[in-house]
Write a structure and sequence with these properties.
The chain has 10 helices and no strands. With 245 residues, it is mainly alpha-helical. The protein has one domain.
Length: 245
Amino acid sequence: MLLLLAAAGFWAGAQNALAGGGSFITFPALLLAGLDPRAANITSTIALFPGQIAMSWSGRRAAGGVGKLSLKALFAISLAGGILGALLLLATPASFFARLVPWLVLFATLVFALGDPIRRRLPQGAKLPPWVLGMIQLGISIYGGYFGGGIGFLMLAALTAAGLAIRNAGATKNLLAGAMNFAAVTIFIFSPQVHWLQTSIACIGALIGGLAGAHMLNRVNEKLLRIVITVIGVALTVGLFLRAP
């Protein structure tokens, strides 16, 4: 089982570097390892965090704000939302979260599968006002601290709709994802729900996988990767609904 977690961490790290959606790999692997859904979610968030920080740091120079909404303001909003989401998760009874998680995975799968096509169909020239982007980012950050699946695609859609070029939006969403996960992880590390052995193994695998994914970035079919991870999300959703209490 520990080898499975290491392999899942490696795959998740590579997946995050190539197309996003790494939590779709570590979350079910941790469930198979015997963790309850809430503990698996918390453990997965911590395990993938170092790799996310490395990605956000490498592209930080391309990140930026939108109009009067500066990058610092977006960063602060993401920190605040991540804290609120993490506290909300810890306050959620494990039994209730177990019933809720199939719906969260379903939502995340839909966002992953449809986020990019929807973003491409946004009206050219139509821009979200900065204050609307700030409210959307707060909502995404709370969701990110609570569960997190699909946050990259939600932020990418919002940032491009607000007028950021795709390259800058990609770098910005990585930085903001790092901020909200930093806030959540800072809270989660004090929780008894963290399984540190599983976290360490998945984390090492994810870091190695992230390096491998960055190396393969221009050699792998991203569309095929998205299809594979969407199929995994659908299978995970069905499985969670079937085993839901």
